[in-house]
Specification:
The chain is an alpha+beta fold. About 45% of the residues lie in helices and about 20% in strands. The relative contact order is 0.12.
């Protein structure tokens, strides 16, 4: 299959996919037809903090026990970091990668191709393809660049679709995981397992992998090391329209890391909502006024616009979000019935 034919196939997959996991799984099959790889990690990210939330991955079994270390090294590696990538890149100098130098190289990985899914509304994910023989070529990287643009929009669309689902019930309060300085799970509250299982379902009888927790904790480590200044927090879709917020913080002299998982606040949820549906800054500001309970006249005064201009903005918001009235718009943005 030619690169052009494979790119068109991947674009069709992205356009037809109803969910982000299906999109990624099928797109990887299409990508693999012309860009062979031996392992991969494709994570969604919080569009604002760029912290990973929902990884789809296939890594060598020997690396699974080292998962916390792998994620920690990924966040501490400046080379080809997804937060600074502007195009698909490979490990031109493998030794520049802390992750490769301290872990992947010893497991036979010879090259990593990295791509980021970012648009003007935020960062929606990153992809690492691992090769255990040879290196990625310039045409292969060009192919990844070719499909990244369309897949970025499709990933954002899939995230927007989560806000139309309803029926989820809130949790009574935050759940907590306590990690060691090396990011191994030390202790957790009783409800934590249920949340983790829903965030990243495990095989029957297996314990859930707290991948989103590791990512938030790793961002804390990266911020402390001066690698990336973004806060150690991420918002992630749980199920049935529910969004959670994960945060990490260092505890005491022992250096343990506490990660909390709780229902996203109205402000946290609506901010992702606005980005996912591609609202402009003006439209996002309008939404915030509506959430605060302002009517058209009050919004017009606060935004220094005429009431007619406010209505024009509101019609645009309705069109982008697939809603027809303020009640439905606010219900989806806030997660209320």
């Amino acid at each position: 299959m030619t690169f052009a034919a494979a790119a068109e196939r991947v674009r069709r997959i992205g356009a037809a996919a109803a969910g982000s996991r299906t999109l990624r799984a099928q797109a990887l099959t299409g990508i693999g037809r012309v860009v062979p790889f031996d392992a991969y990690v494709w994570a969604l990210t919080d569009p604002e903090t760029s912290v990973g939330t929902d990884p789809l991955a296939a890594v060598p079994p020997a690396l699974m026990p080292a998962l916390p270390r792998l994620i920690r090294l990924k966040y501490l590696t400046p080379a080809n970091r997804w937060t600074s990538l502007t195009a698909a890149a490979r490990l031109t100098e493998p030794g520049d990668s802390l992750l490769w130098r301290e872990l992947l190289g010893a497991h036979g990985v010879t090259d990593v191709a990295s791509a980021v899914f970012r648009d003007r509304h935020g960062c929606w994910g990153f992809l690492d393809l691992w090769r255990t023989g040879g290196v990625f070529t310039a045409p292969e990287l060009a192919f990844l660049d070719d499909v990244t643009g369309s897949l970025t929009g499709d990933l954002r669309r899939c995230q927007a679709a989560t806000f139309t689902a309803t029926g989820g019930s809130g949790s009574p309060g935050p759940v907590v995981l306590l990690l060691s300085p090396d990011m191994e799970v030390v202790e957790q509250t009783p409800q934590t397992r249920e949340h983790l299982m829903r965030l990243l379902p495990a095989d029957a009888g297996a314990e859930p992998v707290p991948a989103a927790v590791y990512n938030v904790a790793a961002q804390l480590v990266a911020a402390e090391a001066g690698v990336d200044p973004q806060p150690p927090s991420a918002r992630v879709h749980l199920a049935a329209g529910r969004w959670l917020t994960l945060r990490a913080a260092r505890l005491g002299a022992a250096g343990r890391i506490a990660v909390t998982i709780e229902e996203a606040s109205p402000a946290q949820r609506s901010a992702v909502f606005a980005r996912a549906f591609g609202l402009t800054p003006r439209e996002t500001e309008l939404l915030s006024h509506l959430i605060a309970g302002a009517d058209t006249r009050a919004v017009a005064a606060d935004m220094f616009l005429s009431p007619n201009t406010v209505q024009d903005h509101l019609k645009s918001v309705f069109a982008k979000t697939g809603t027809r009235n303020r009640r439905t718009l606010l219900s989806r943005a806030l997660g209320t019935a």
